[in-house]
Amino acid sequence: MAQLTDGQVDDVLREAEERLASRGSGTAPTVTEKLQKSTQPQPQPAGTKEKLSVRQLQKSTAPPKESAGPDWFDLPKTDLTSEFKRDWQILRMRNVLDPKHQKKTLRANPPAFSQVGEIIAGPTDFYSSRLARKERKRTLLQEAMSSRDDKIHTKSAEIRRKKASGGKGAYQRFLSQRRKQKG
């Protein structure tokens, strides 16, 4: 079947209305015959106005979209919970958490269509990139703060080591280790 333009569809609908109004006089052509005739282009005079058709009378109120569509794998609409809002705010402020790593800033409003999930490690990641049970956190905020705390603890331990080297305590530790090796 050939593609129909909006004008042709309006003409077919208008004729169907007229046929329904006459209550089937019997001599009117069928819809398929009208469609076949309407696929041929028909010139319209420049000065005529279009009649009001059924298509223009009906107001189509489209319901809000529940998914992003098949091009986006039907990604569902974002469920704006308090946890999601907090995590979105943390993601937006990730430059504050780690100022040495520059990341692209995110928009202020959360996306209209998104999904939150949990990454499950596969069997091949057992030793290489798996998090131990102690390292796993319940929220994104706890995870971000723990990584920040780890950096702070390692830096402070490094500073303490540098300050302690060359002092009396460092020399006594050195002597006690030497005694342990001899005896």
Automatic annotation (TrEMBL):
It holds the Pfam family Fcf2. Residues 11-21, 146-159 have a biased composition (Basic and acidic residues). Residues 1-75, 145-183 are annotated as: Disordered. Keywords: Nucleus. One of its GO terms (biological process) is RNA processing. It comes from Hapsidospora chrysogenum (strain ATCC 11550 / CBS 779.69 / DSM 880 / IAM 14645 / JCM 23072 / IMI 49137). This is rRNA-processing protein-like protein. It is found in: Nucleus, Nucleolus. Residues 65-152 form the Fcf2 pre-rRNA processing C-terminal domain. One of its GO terms (cellular component) is nucleolus. One of its GO terms (molecular function) is RNA binding.
